Amino acid sequence: MCVRIRLEDVTVRFQDRKNPQNEVIAVNKVDLEIPEGKLICLLGPSGCGKSTTLFAIAGLQELTEGKIYFRDKDVTHLDTQERKIGLVFQNYALYPHMTVAGNIAFPLKNAKWKKQDIEARVLEVATIVQISDLLDRKPAQLSGGQQQRVAIARALAKKPEILLLDEPLSNLDAKLRHSTREEIKRIQKATGITTVFVTHDQEEAMTISDEIVIMEAGNFIQQGKPQDVYEKPNNLFVAGFIGSPTMNFFKGRFENGAVMVDGYRIAGHSGQDGPVTVGVRAEAIQVKEKGLLGLVENVELLGRERLCRVRLENGQEVSMVASIDTLIEEEQNITIGFVTGKVYLFEAETGKALARV
Amino acid sequence: MNITPKKAIGKTLSYLILGFFAVITLFPFYWMTITALQDSNAAVTWPPQLWPKALHWENFTRLLDAAPFGRYFTNSVIVVIMDLSVSMVVMSLAAFGFAHYKFKGKETIFMVFLATMMIPSEALIITNFRTVAKLGWFDTYHVLFLPYVASVFYIYLLRQAFESVPKQLYLAARIDGCTDFQYFLKILVPIARPMMITIAILKTIASWNSFMWPLLVTNTNRMRVISYGLVAFQSEAGNDFPLMMAASIFTVAPMVILYLIARRKIIDGIARGGIKG
Amino acid sequence: MKQQEIKKALPYLLPAFIVLLVFTFYPLANAVIQSFNRLPTPDKYDLSLKTYQWLLKDVTFMNAVRNTLVYSFVTVPISIAISLMISALLTSIQRLRVFFQTVYFLPYVTSAVAVAFTWGYLFNADYGLINMILGNLFGLAKIPWIKDPQYAMTAVMIFGIWRSLAFNVLILTTGMLSIDPQYYKAARIDGANNATTFFKITLPLLAPVVSYVFTIGLINAFRVFTEVYALIGSYARIYNANTMVFYIFDQLWVYKDYSLASAASVILLLIILVLTGFSRWLSRKTDYNAS
Q1: Is the domain A5-241 a CATH 3.40.50.300 member?
Q2: Nearest residue of B to residue C213 by CA position?
Q3: C63-285, which class in CATH?
């Protein structure tokens, strides 16, 4: 049983009680819809309002304005206890004085399940997250990864309609992060539950989400499948945030029906003369006969590819990814150009995406 | 998640109950104050007057005539000053000795020190009584505080405060030509000043309110401290309640004032002992 | 090197050590030795168990022990129960919390003697407010609170509970406020109502603090003296408000029987050591963060 979530004009404002003029708008008129049964990621830098939005969906954060609907039912004023959601906290919030089994059973006891049903469900859920051999331990005796799985089990125990996760991987070391995010994906696919998770790590979001929602400074910026967001960013911020290495940005100009960067013609474009921001990903930069001159400062050999850092004449640093066979060495002077069709144009002032040429 | 009527009732009830207990806590002090300003007859009649018809300030002057409360008060003040002067020195020196130097058996000795905290003073009071009798210390000022100048709990706190100062500061001081003692006096002590003030305040309260020991070792009227003087006064005052309450106020007021001024420090100091366990 | 350090450390440690030696270690040893002294005066020795035998047969002492036990095991649980309630309420409100905390802690800094006087006045059989209220509003007969063996201990207990709230409320509130609010959020998600949250989450997490307050409370209750002396008077013995420390005081002050007093104090010491050990064990059992 999974549920579509809709946020309408949701706004959360915090007022400093001592200085009422100081107001922080954590979430600003966010309008978005989360489809049923999918794994959605709220992605953005620290302070962008993603966690606040998550807690608003959970009912732990009051809305200053706006409404939240679970499958067309207005839950804006519904108490947390009644919203039938499971939440995995960033620090897990496992009750230290209860065993693993006790932690998982707690929500079921509160919902007044029968004792046999509770025992069965605890075992069932523990098996899904693969901690059934740890049921008698206390949280302090578990590793970080194990604690997290207990937190997930507790969230899933009461068969919620929505599963929320607040930066679930940020407390784990790198290796554990990879395996655990696969786990979360697997569990979500197995249970089919509508899942929303918050992260600031774009790689994480790109790897496991069905859809990504990008937020910045409290605003909703873009929503879409990972590949769509990667290939069709709405604005400069999204383009720069998604993808590793970060997209390269150049100061360009519209001149006489063409896009020019540092005197070189990049592509044809009918637009008014004026400044424009040109964005190119590292993999769309190639060695060309004519183009921007630069000095290769650093080359990292990464198996199949070469990651090069090139310093242009004007001092700008550019990241470039080439196949391992391309002969580029450090201290080499090279000329680079852009692959046609993979150059992004953004409005110089607002950062809004204009076109891809 | 707005304020529902149910929540509003809950909040109101909470404030009412808290208010009720606040009244219970404050009532004896309130009663003490207004009785002290009452007329002798009004204090014993029904219905009780919640506010005296006239403020009889002369009860306080009567008090000073009836018993040498001025003397008692002064004695307590002298004892506090002497106590703080000696104990702060003794305790901070000991704390420095533990914090700064490394030697074999240091932690064992410290544990023995700490173990003394478990011993109730009532067990020691018997021998101490005899000891000071033999030393001829009855009816002096120093007998009232000397046995208690090495308060292990405060030594422990001071040691922690000193140890939290990075070792590099000491090395820098050495290069600047400081001896160990100068380092202690000119650097550690000022840095640990907030803690020392807290300890001084707590010790003041303990000294002012101490009773059993002064009771045992003071014989003459002249040397009584205020707590003992108060008790002795009870038999003299008889049923003159305003007078007795005036005496109580004399005793309580200075600490209440100190509390209102240094409330945060007092509470932090007590809570430290509490949470440490 | 280490030898040198101890030479340097010595002058700093010496004053405190001397004071402790004379006024703590020596008296401790002496109390134990004296308790085995059959003779009441400490100068002449005759070591035997007779003192303890006598002590355990002394009705006054047994009375004192009984009173102390009653006092301790009545006032401490009641005080903690009330304090828990007050602390829970304090934690749940925002406004005026600091004000209430200031008020509740006030009795701690005040002299027990002075406050006992006020209570003595309130408890006064003829002129005290309590009897006046009982008499005039409820039509009950005057209870001779302080001068009656039946009621004296009760009066001391009421006073004792009132006085112990200050410390208990402070420590319990500090403990409650330090519980990570995340657990409360998780409990809300898990569908727990207020009562369930308090009994299944707050209290268990507070257990180390509660056990600390409980044992400190017991230890202080066993040592009660000033409150009794100030409220009842030096003849508390007659009014059945005798406590162990009062017994020690009497033996020392009135009867000048040092060995009996020492023996009683050793028994008190043992009880307190047991309580302290119990508190250590309890705090280890309730420490959920140990693996």
Answers
A1: yes
A2: B274
A3: mainly alpha
